Design the sequence.
């Protein structure tokens, strides 16, 4: 291997030092040439340290061809060292090149996602710990009360840090040191490791229904049979998780690693508990909330193949698995799988590519599959497994629409403005009387989405985005939900000075909570949004409180819609179903359907039947009709028909080009330049430039092109050639978003 890879620089001349290419995890780079010192044996996939300018960086030996025009081998800097890590497998290296080619990102930027952070690659530091010595306490030991307390605290034999033992025993650190000196306590060095235990595939799962068994057998049959994509399409509560756990067990039994991608890892405490119940131990987690030590341990465990099951958010897809053999993408329709900055990619789509390159199966699970996956299942490209019934025969909730034009919320002198129509109010009341719980769903954080001065018409806008500031009354602040700008809510209007005229317009969850508290003062109520829940611990505590019936009403944003199981929840009220349908977004209908269907699925998951009331001004909208009639397939077929007619994805290909500049004129000029150089091709249409959906974001002015192409056109190649010729000013940034989601 050494001779082949190391000689690629100049195979002909043995007098020149061998050299090779190293891919560096830098946002703008491809590979670089380095000389190989004679004592190093290197192959593609090896992790190496190399000099770059004055720095030393970690890179990967890559099999890309030598650069003809490059510096002569004898002038090259040499690789410093090889890191003691298993090499990155070839399928993963091809994956990095593939993602880079598809997303038009530099391979170095993709590699960076695999390396996670330089710290992640460093071997874990041993930690110093103390514990009760494994021999009798010395006879001459003077046992002061503090020493006695310490020794009894250490009785359990656990290794703890000195500080922790001191705290537990309620003594000073000097006491600990004294006991170490006498030999009553012993010190040891522990290298922390993840995972603690391997999941056990042989533990029995629940006994599956006939329908579930058939689905599980289908998936298990695909494990160890090469590449396949299967859509696991089952109604909420049908047991999709139990079913794909069987496939996980099969992959584990075959000695392979498994990746489960979830959209909201922060809220998956219930998922983790179920996994632990099924497999006897926790999986390795990968998400943005990890501390750096956890990150380092997890990364290494994945690379060394010790992490058998990884559950993570989209970035977990890029971890350096040594023997990945199955991917499950749960809630595959979720928009959260789309990464919108840095390397722009859709984790579900890239996961399919990863499985193809690694030649193993992938399962896409959802109660409301994306239109893309449905189309692929119908055309036979993907396999399909359906679970049409809820486990245990629980009924699907009954969905009813409330036409707000006929039944508007009534203003009440004691309550003020209202957001709850009379039928919904009655339903909440009945639910509370029956001792059940209600979820009121409003996908808007804060108190009010807009604050207006009634005296002069002033509206509070973000200084660096084209967006209103959202009032968060609980915090006493106005906040921009796009850039995070925040300011104290003023007492008076900054434009006219009037103190009595500032008026909130429209509802957010805080404002809705205010109304509900006034109307149902005895009900125990809690808001569930990203402002009220910080991190997984708070999320699972809230979920516990709901399950323990410590709450009667939950007012929730999207966060509350996700796969939680609340047996006592029988009513779901949707406050503003039309919210997501505004704007010209291609997927607005599909997304609204997904969300509302998912929220609706929270109702009646146990013995008590559930009920869903949806407030809308547009009851005839296809989305509303699909929800009432429970006819998802017809709705998706209708959507598919429209997209096909317009050559929109997944039938045609689409990319968005976003230009941004510090001032509007520069943005317009750059847009004209891009437009002028657009290729003229029969199968390509360039729409724009237009203002991007957020015309100003973080102080940058944004223009957008949509590039539509027939499926047969090599879109990336065309884009690459077009954009390579552009000479844009340095202050202008151009972002390419292949398969854009929100536009
Ligand atoms: P989905 O993922 O389709 O929403 P879940 O797998 O979460 O469905 O199952 C819903 C509930 O039913 C869970 O509490 C789960 O533990 C339970 N359940 C599903 N299948 C079975 C089974 N065969 N035996 C016992 N409980 C089951
Ligand atoms: Zn802003």
Sequence:
């Amino acid at each position: 291997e050494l001779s082949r890879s190391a000689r690629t620089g100049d195979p002909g001349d043995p007098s020149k030092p061998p050299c090779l290419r190293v891919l560096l995890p830098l946002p703008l780079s491809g590979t670089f040439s380095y000389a190989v010192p004679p004592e190093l044996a290197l192959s593609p996939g090896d992790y190496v340290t190399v000099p770059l300018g004055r720095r030393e960086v970690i890179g990967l030996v890559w099999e890309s061809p030598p650069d003809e025009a490059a510096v002569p081998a004898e002038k090259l800097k040499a690789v410093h060292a090889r890191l003691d890590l298993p090499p990155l497998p070839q399928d993963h290296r091809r994956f990095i090149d593939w993602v880079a080619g598809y997303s038009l990102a530099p391979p170095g930027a993709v590699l960076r996602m695999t390396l996670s952070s330089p710290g992640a690659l460093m071997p874990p530091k041993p930690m110093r710990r103390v514990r009760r010595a494994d021999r009798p306490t010395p006879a001459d030991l003077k046992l002061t009360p503090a020493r006695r307390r310490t020794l009894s605290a250490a009785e359990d034999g656990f290794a703890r840090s000195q500080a922790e033992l001191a705290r537990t025993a309620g003594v000073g650190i000097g006491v600990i040191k004294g006991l170490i000196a006498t030999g009553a306590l012993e010190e040891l060095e522990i290298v922390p490791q993840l995972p603690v235990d391997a999941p056990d595939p042989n533990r029995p799962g629940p006994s599956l229904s006939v329908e579930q068994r058939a689905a599980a057998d289908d998936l298990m049959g695909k494990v160890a049979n090469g590449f396949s994509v299967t859509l696991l399409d089952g109604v909420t509560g049908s047991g999709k998780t139990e079913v794909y756990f069987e496939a996980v067990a099969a992959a584990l039994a075959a000695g392979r690693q498994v990746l489960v991608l979830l959209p909201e890892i922060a809220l998956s405490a219930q998922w983790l508990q179920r996994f632990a119940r099924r497999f006897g131990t926790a999986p390795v987690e990968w998400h943005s909330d990890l501390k750096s030590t956890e990150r380092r341990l997890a990364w290494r465990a994945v690379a060394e193949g010790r992490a058998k099951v990884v559950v993570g958010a989209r970035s977990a897809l890029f971890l350096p698995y040594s023997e990945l053999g199955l991917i499950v993408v749960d809630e595959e329709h979720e928009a959260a799988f789309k990464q919108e900055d840095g390397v722009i990619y859709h984790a579900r789509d890239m996961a399919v590519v990863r499985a193809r390159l690694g030649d193993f199966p992938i399962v896409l699970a959802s109660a409301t599959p994306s239109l893309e996956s449905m189309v692929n299942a119908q055309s036979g490209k993907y396999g399909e497994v359906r679970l049409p019934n809820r486990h245990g025969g629980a009924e699907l909730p009954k969905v009813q629409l409330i036409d707000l034009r006929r039944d508007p919320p009534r203003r009440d002198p004691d309550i003020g403005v209202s957001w709850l129509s009379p039928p919904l109010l009655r339903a909440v009341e009945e639910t509370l009387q029956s001792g059940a719980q209600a979820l009121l769903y409003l996908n808007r954080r804060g108190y009010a989405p807009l604050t207006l001065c009634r005296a002069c018409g002033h509206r509070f806008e973000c200084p660096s985005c084209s967006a209103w500031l959202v009032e968060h009354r609980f915090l006493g602040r106005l906040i921009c939900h796009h850039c995070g700008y925040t300011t104290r809510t003023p007492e008076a209007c900054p434009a006219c000075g009037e103190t009595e005229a500032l008026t909130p317009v429209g509802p957010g969850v805080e404002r809705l909570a205010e109304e509900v508290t006034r109307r149902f003062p005895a009900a125990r109520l809690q808001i569930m949004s990203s402002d009220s829940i910080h991190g997984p611990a708070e999320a699972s505590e809230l979920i516990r409180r709901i399950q323990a019936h410590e709450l009667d009403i939950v007012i929730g944003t999207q966060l509350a819609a996700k796969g939680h199981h609340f047996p006592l929840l029988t009513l779901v009220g949707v406050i503003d179903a039309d919210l997501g349908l505004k704007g010209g977004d291609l997927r607005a209908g599909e997304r609204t359907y997904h969300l509302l269907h998912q929220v609706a699925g929270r109702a009646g998951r146990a013995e008590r039947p559930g009920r869903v009331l949806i407030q809308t001004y547009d009851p005839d909208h296809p989305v509303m009709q699909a929800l009432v009639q429970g006819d998802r397939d017809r709705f998706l077929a209708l959507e598919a028909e429209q997209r096909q007619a317009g050559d929109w994805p997944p039938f045609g290909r689409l990319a968005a080009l976003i230009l941004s500049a510090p001032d509007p004129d520069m943005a317009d000029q750059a847009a004209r330049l891009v437009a002028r150089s657009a290729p003229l091709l029969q199968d390509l249409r360039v729409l724009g430039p237009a203002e991007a959906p957020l015309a100003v974001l973080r102080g940058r002015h944004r223009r957008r092109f949509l590039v539509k192409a027939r499926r047969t056109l090599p879109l990336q190649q065309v884009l690459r050639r077009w954009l390579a010729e552009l000479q844009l000013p340095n202050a202008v940034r151009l972002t390419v978003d292949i398969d854009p989601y929100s536009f």
